[in-house]
């Protein structure tokens, strides 16, 4: 299948979304909360998603869209999976680590992935079997052979105050002396694993729009993505461990307190 027209759509949509992020970052935005007082949604999230949907509908009538803010209507062989603004809390504070993430799934398999970092303009792209790229140049995961000395990242769900699960994992990793970051935009965290800036990443309670594009980036860059117990990953699994493949087992064993 020629994926170029779809990649082209994903790119156009990502740049439109980035423009909307920038517009509201400049002129100010309204915001409200969703599941918890820290689960924020801004005008930029909503307008970016609306613009992405409009562009996809115009170019590919009949394709289904799953978006964080608007959900999904209907079913179909072609499904776009969209996080219009990943890292909204960072965005709302002007902390420059947020992005747009767009994946295209065809008959259950993600075949195109685009993550665009709004603040830096860094573009991460992948197509199934076609490799992963950063600003058009091929990327590979890191070569780090062991966890100690690696740089890994995680994230926390909005209900962290009610559920300590990831604090348990984090404590185990930190207590081994491993360096951990919490950048705050899962799709971009995954892109950082793909390009070797991070050696690993894990998170609990992710959603398909956080993962669709980033997972393809990592796999196309030679890395590994599994569930939290090392099982094959399927989109919809809310628990994810990603790495450069070399440190994967050690990261899993550390998270589960086996090391
Ligand atoms: C969130 C970010 C964050 C992660 C959360 C996500 P949002 O997405 O990716 O890093 O820890 O689990 O929900 O709400 O900013 O799109
Ligand atoms: Ca997200
Ligand atoms: Ca979002």
Describe this protein's structure.
- GO terms for molecular function: inositol monophosphate 1-phosphatase activity; metal ion binding.
- The chain has 259 residues and is α+β, with helices and mostly antiparallel strands.
- The chain folds into two domains: 4-138, Fructose-1,6-Bisphosphatase, subunit A, domain 1 (Fructose-1,6-Bisphosphatase, Chain A, domain 1, 2-Layer Sandwich), CATH 3.30.540; 151-255, D-Maltodextrin-Binding Protein, domain 2 (3-Layer(aba) Sandwich), CATH 3.40.190.80.
- The chain is 34% helix and 26% strand.
- It has helices at residues 4-27, 43-59, 88-93, 165-174, 186-194, 208-220, 248-255; strands spanning 31-33, 40-42, 64-67, 71-72, 78-86, 99-106, 109-117, 123-127, 131-134, 137-138, 151-154, 179-181, 200-203, 224-226, 240-243.
- The strands form three sheets. It has an eight-stranded mixed β-sheet, with helices on both faces.
- Helix 1 (4-27) runs antiparallel to helix 2 (43-59) and helix 5 packs parallel to helix 6 (208-220).
- The radius of gyration is 17 Å and the shape is globular.
- The mean pLDDT is 97.
- Residues 45, 68, 83, 85-86, 88 line the site of one calcium ion.
